[in-house]
Design brief:
This protein has helices spanning 15-25, 32-44, 50-57, 61-71, 85-92, 94-110, 121-142, 147-156, 160-169, 172-178, 187-194, 198-209, 213-220, 232-248, 261-267, 271-289. It is 64% helix and 0% strand. It has 16 helices and no strands. The longest helix is centred in the middle third of the chain and has 22 residues, at 121-142.
Length: 295
């Protein structure tokens, strides 16, 4: 069935039209998602070394600056003395430098204000970071072989919002009619207005960038982890996302996204585990967002 063309009368675009427009927009987006993919590939290559990682970023001054800023955060515990990427590589080692590059590229891409989604830049990035830290922690305990992939999925699970943001901005009147003032933009609202939600959009983007299908599926189904049969990554992403939302909730506020019981069973996690994961996640975010540790 052919895609329906965009209505010239100002009505909502057909789903196929929005999807095709959004996919075409990917070629104009920041190259940072490709940096994330390249770092993952280098980390998985048994023949790769530190020089292969530093080559990924050496011509991107903004990325180098972000790597150094994060390397000097309290999270990595090296005293705020890192002055170059090579220095960071020597102090942190291969795997940690790869994580740092992934973090930095994600921060530069995702650390933006999403006005249509009613999210400021700090909240967008902090939620992505929190989900990534929690996802890696869950994976490290239950499925250590996919801990690095869980970290990437956590960082990128909501990145479809960055792609859809300009399309929602163009339909602000519709958005205001569908969502209450200051209320979060729901996936139902995304689908009603655009014909696609952020999870599906990012999955399509991942295929465009040729991310592994396991990561793509986990991002696509992080709200519905039971749909891809026995996907540990999807269950991890779902649970980490819910824990991050739980941490962001105001006192007395109902959790906006609850962990599905099936995900808890699959991962063998109980409510006490969720409390510990949340505490560790909050501590990690604070260390990464804090000032350099010069002690």
């Amino acid at each position: 069935m052919a895609d329906t063309p965009h209505s010239s009368g100002g009505g909502p675009a057909a789903a196929g039209d929005i999807k095709s427009q959004a996919l075409r927009s990917l070629v104009k987006l920041s190259p940072r998602p490709l940096v994330i993919l390249r770092a993952r590939e280098v980390l998985a290559d048994p023949n790769a070394g530190l020089r292969d990682l530093t080559n990924i970023i050496e011509d991107d001054l903004a990325l180098v600056a972000k790597v150094l800023a994060l390397a000097n955060s309290a999270y990595f515990g090296i005293g705020g003395q890192v002055s170059s990427v090579r220095h960071a590589a020597a102090l942190l080692g291969f795997q940690t430098l790869g994580e740092l590059i992934t973090l930095s590229a994600s921060a530069l891409w995702l650390g933006c204000e999403l006005t249509a989604y009613r999210l400021n830049a700090r909240r967008v990035w902090a939620h992505s970071l929190a989900t990534a830290l929690c996802a890696r922690r869950i994976a490290a305990t239950r499925f250590p072989e996919i801990a690095a992939d869980a970290f990437v999925v956590g960082l990128l699970h909501d990145a479809g919002k960055v792609i859809l943001e300009p399309f929602l901005q163009q339909r602000q009147a519709q958005l205001d009619a569908v969502c209450r003032p200051l209320a979060p933009v729901t996936r139902d609202a995304e689908r009603q207005i655009l014909g696609i939600d952020h999870a599906e959009m990012m999955a399509r983007a991942c295929r465009f960038w040729r991310f592994p299908e396991s990561l793509t599926q986990a991002i696509r189904f992080h709200h519905s982890p039971a749909l891809p049969a026995q996907s540990a990554l999807a269950h991890i992403a779902h649970t980490a996302n819910a824990v991050a939302h739980r941490a962001e909730a105001l006192p007395g506020q109902v959790e906006t996204i609850a962990v599905e019981a099936e995900a808890l069973d699959f991962l063998m996690i109980d409510r006490e585990d969720l409390d510990r994961l949340q505490a560790d996640m909050i501590a990690g975010v604070r260390k990464l967002e804090g000032e350099p540790d010069n002690a």
